[in-house]
Design brief:
It contains 13 helices and 16 strands. It is of the alpha/beta class and about 400 residues long. Bound molecules: manganese (II) ion. Manganese (II) ion binds next to loops. Its cofactor is Mn(2+).
Length: about 400
């Protein structure tokens, strides 16, 4: 029965929250009154095709950094961090925060898929909301919305298992859609959000001015000068439509935005732990906020497993951390997958809570944190990746395999 999994339970009772710590392989199954259907039964391929095509057209037209300026005195903006295929927690979050509406905007910071067993359903649910309210729901790209990550952390196998002989087609269409996802948002002119965070300058400067075009030589800032922070104008010009963001060459901004992490050490430096993106210090947070007259940065990308290895930064027990407090504002990390990861080799779980942020008028720059617990029991399913062998976090990328996997 591979591929036929009780993902869409039709329950007699509403989904409930259990407060007791839970084991990831829940021993209780859904009740006998529950019936279930496979995803292709609920979303046949022609429905999937239309949804993804419609969403892709909308997404590809959006700017790299979407500006959400249409907020007024009645508006609320809900910001969501990594969800990683934990469908039931996403449904709870939507119910708890209230569904998207004329007055309720949503900005998702990416990492919809991988690790959790319901990445496809999670992504399609959010795509449906995007199509229904394109000016109210914004889906940003995470580093896991890429060919490389989805081939290692489960999403590709999940899609192939669920859609059988149509799986390759469905996976390809999802990758095409991932390419269209914007990279960042600016909410009400005051709040910058992105999956990883800040990014380098890649501006090209002529070595010497020459009259003729023939002899004009160019050199890259990033290769010849110390790393310096990129501007919003540079972000707007980046080419984001790539299956995997490149880690060398001219187009480095998408990789930085999706992979970078904050640190307590000043300055910008290569993110050697991840082999991708940058580490930036509180001074960079201050420079960025001040230069672009912002008050807040909300980024995601680090769950409890990643934070365990990051001395000097807070744990992810309650779904968020305040990482930098500087004169111009704050930097926050937001993670929305409770009891993460769904599959774990050891008995010890992080038992982390998830969180989302609500931003309110007049300035939308004071975060209101909403912490929540995992929905339990999760339906019993098998993982789509070898979680005992695959690394706990996104460290030590095999860059060579990314080259061959284009
Ligand atoms: Mn991430």
């Amino acid at each position: 029965m591979s591929g036929f999994i009780a993902i869409w339970p039709i329950r007699q009772d509403p989904i409930t929250r259990h407060r007791a710590p839970i084991h990831h392989e829940a021993t209780t199954t859904t009740s006998s009154t529950t019936t279930a259907a496979s995803t292709p039964e609920v979303l046949p391929v022609p429905v999937f095709d239309t949804l993804v095509l419609t969403a892709s057209k909308i997404l590809h037209k959006e700017a790299n950094c979407v500006r959400i300026d249409d907020c007024n005195d009645n508006s609320r903006v809900v910001v969501v961090g990594d969800v990683h295929g934990q469908l039931h927690d996403v449904i709870f979050l939507l119910q708890d925060a209230g569904f998207p509406s004329e007055d309720r905007f949503f900005v998702f910071n990416g990492d919809y898929v991988d690790r959790g067993a319901w990445g496809l359903e999670t992504f399609l649910l959010l795509l449906a909301w995007k199509v229904f309210l394109p000016q109210r729901v914004y889906l940003l790209r995470g580093n896991h919305e890429s060919k490389y990550c989805t081939s290692v952390y489960g999403f590709e196998k999940e899609v192939l298992a669920k859609y059988g002989d149509k799986g390759k087609h469905v996976y390809r269409k999802c990758l095409g859609c991932f390419e269209g996802l914007p990279l960042a948002s600016i909410i009400a002119g005051h709040v910058y959000t992105a999956h990883g965070g800040l990014f380098r300058s890649v501006s090209i400067t002529p070595l010497k001015r020459s009259k003729g075009k023939k002899n004009r030589r160019i050199t890259l800032n990033s290769e010849t000068k110390p790393l310096c922070l990129g501007s919003l104008e540079e972000l707007s010009k980046a080419r984001r439509s790539v299956l995997d963001p490149p880690w060398e060459g001219l187009n480095l901004i998408p990789g930085d935005v999706l992979w970078s992490d904050p640190t307590m050490k000043s300055g910008l430096s290569p993110n050697t732990e991840r082999a991708f993106g940058l580490l930036w210090g509180p001074d960079c947070t201050e420079d960025f906020l001040k230069k672009f007259q912002l008050k807040l940065i909300i980024r995601s990308h680090e769950g409890p497993d990643a934070r365990e290895k990051r001395p000097g930064l807070g744990g992810m027990d309650v779904g968020y951390t305040i990482d930098h407090v500087v004169p111009s504002g704050k930097l926050i990390t937001l993670f929305s997958a409770p009891d993460y990861p769904q599959f774990q080799a050891t008995e010890d779980r992080f038992n982390n809570k998830g969180a989302y942020i609500v931003l309110k008028p007049p300035y939308f720059d004071v975060p209101e944190f909403h912490t929540f617990e995992a929905i339990t029991p999760r339906p019993v399913v098998n993982a789509y990746y070898d979680y005992e062998d695959v690394l706990d976090s996104d460290e030590e990328l095999d860059l060579a395999s990314m080259v061959t996997a284009t």
